[in-house]
Design a protein that fits this description.
Rossmann fold, four-stranded antiparallel beta sheet, 14% strand, single chain, 3 domains, Four Helix Bundle (Hemerythrin (Met), subunit A), alpha/beta, 488 residues
């Protein structure tokens, strides 16, 4: 059965029936992380949102080329056109090579995504590996007359572009003519014709570490340039879907549209999709507010705002309980409720596999398969899918209690729906193995603490008994100056 997928297009501000440019093939570009710090919730939400999109598109029969970039150069502090490159700054502070910083945090990002069961993209281009393509984009914009060189840097001429096309602001809905008239002059921006202009190429200051030769100066590309260059290289001048967080609508995605229109006369894609923001306790997440929590801190519980550790699957499930276009507020109570809900869902799957079928149908059950497809086709409405899955949980538990027996055909259908929507589409996995590992860690800590107390009290009988009993179970305890350690 062909699925008719509706997606909300930020550009048109309405849901539209998805029709790819090439039948059966989808080109998807999503803005990836700037790798100068540990991945956090703000990275998790778009990664999971567009993982769901790519999973579902593949599930309903499309071949998907999913491109998600790594920004390892050119993203300046405060997302402005002045200041220090975030990665270069981190490298200077830690006395490391910039690419050492980028590689370290890229590895950390990949590990977190794997834990969240986010499938890797088809292509993961690095901005630093596509400098030649970015220089070519800048030259094309200059040739089109929508950019200018100033003191070795190249800037996009927003006023000239707006006068020619009237398109700057089409995605964000900003009144750009008013912005051009009222934007104040910022320190260090005297190179620009207008404060609203943005950098396509920046001349590197003498102390700047990351620099490449170009026709205009030794320097580095602007933040917006990289996505135009890499999107075009791997998906063509026009592709199907461009995604990212809502915070990227302006200036990043607005500027991408301007760059592509300056070169080709049209934007880079047909559908723009954006996930909404994350708050913690009703406040915007930020380091200055003291509520900035990395994914590793969620997984370990090592943060003063967290009352416990939360498994990666709990984080994933919680994110999917809200529609991707709605704001999402993280709090301990909500996360604990998500943890219990996920446990109920996974337990019901196990219960389903043990049900004994009735010989004849005594219970009519809803067409959950159709209901779940209808929810996914309505702009990836994962909360509604989850509500249908919990309706199935009630049916399964009732059958297990012998209140409403199910036939083998009904059991098989429920199992198929669970496999499709829990595993394939939502990407939820049973985290009981993780919970078991955490339980073993906790129990071993308890045993070693008891043994340490026994040793402190010179109770050698208890101390040796615990060591020998663990050894019989295949666990070796090693005593060191910093305490005891163990290994299997």
């Amino acid at each position: 059965m062909e699925q008719q997928l509706l997606i909300y297009n930020t550009l048109t501000r309405q849901k539209e029936l998805f029709r790819p440019l090439t039948p059966d093939h989808v080109g998807l570009y999503v803005c990836g992380p700037t790798v100068y710090g540990d991945p956090h919730l703000g990275h998790a939400r778009p990664a999971i949102t567009f993982d769901i999109l790519s999973r579902y598109l593949r599930h309903i029969g499309y071949k998907v080329r999913y491109v998600r970039n790594i920004t390892d150069v050119g993203h300046l502090e405060h997302d402005a056109d002045e200041g220090e490159d975030k990665i270069a700054k981190k490298a200077r502070l830690e006395q490391l090579e910039p690419m050492e910083v980028a590689q370290y945090y890229t590895n950390r990002y990949h590990a977190a995504m794997e834990a969240l069961n986010v499938l890797p993209p088809s292509i993961e281009p690095h901005a630093s590996g596509h400098i030649i393509e970015q220089i070519a984009v800048v030259q094309k914009i200059l040739d089109a007359g929508f950019a200018y060189v100033s003191n070795g840097s190249v800037y996009f001429d927003v006023r000239k572009y707006q006068q020619a096309t009237g398109k700057y602001g089409c995605l964000s809905g900003r009144n750009v003519d008013e912005m051009l008239a009222t934007t104040r002059e910022l320190d260090g921006q005297e190179e620009k014709h207008d404060p609203a202009d943005f950098a396509l190429w920046k001349k590197a200051s003498p102390e700047h570490i990351m620099r490449w030769p170009s026709p205009w100066s030794d320097g580095f590309p602007g933040w917006h340039t990289e996505c135009t260059a890499m999107g075009t290289k791997y998906l063509g001048e026009t592709f199907d879907i461009h995604g990212g967080g809502m915070d990227l609508v302006f200036p990043h995605h607005e500027s991408e549209i301007a760059q592509q229109c300056a070169i080709t006369g049209h934007g880079p894609c047909r559908y723009w999709m954006h996930n909404n923001m994350i708050t913690i306790g009703g406040q915007k997440m930020g380091k200055s507010l003291g509520n900035f929590i990395t994914l590793e801190q969620f997984f370990t519980g090592n943060h003063p705002s967290l009352s416990q550790a939360y498994s990666p699957m709990t984080i994933r499930f919680f994110i999917l309980q809200a529609h991707y276009r709605s704001t999402l507020d993280f709090g301990n109570e909500a996360l604990q409720a998500a943890e219990k809900g996920l446990s109920r869902l996974m337990q019901a799957r196990k219960t389903l596999s043990r049900l004994q079928p009735a010989k004849e149908a005594k219970t009519q059950i809803a067409d959950y398969r159709t209901l779940c497809y209808e929810a996914m086709n309505d702009d990836l409405n994962t909360p509604i899918v989850i509500s249908h899955l919990f309706d199935m949980v009630k049916v399964i538990n009732s059958a297990a209690d012998l209140n409403t027996p199910l036939t083998q055909a009904q059991i098989d259908e429920l199992a198929a729906v669970m496999d499709i929507f829990v595993s394939d589409v939502l990407g939820l996995a049973d985290s009981s193995a993780d919970q078991s590992a955490a339980l073993v860690e906790g129990l071993m800590k308890l045993i070693l603490d008891i043994r340490a107390t026994a040793k402190a009290n010179k109770d050698w009988t208890t101390s040796d008994h615990l060591r020998d009993a663990l050894k019989a179970l295949g666990v070796t305890v090693k005593d060191g100056k910093d305490g005891a350690t163990w290994e299997i």
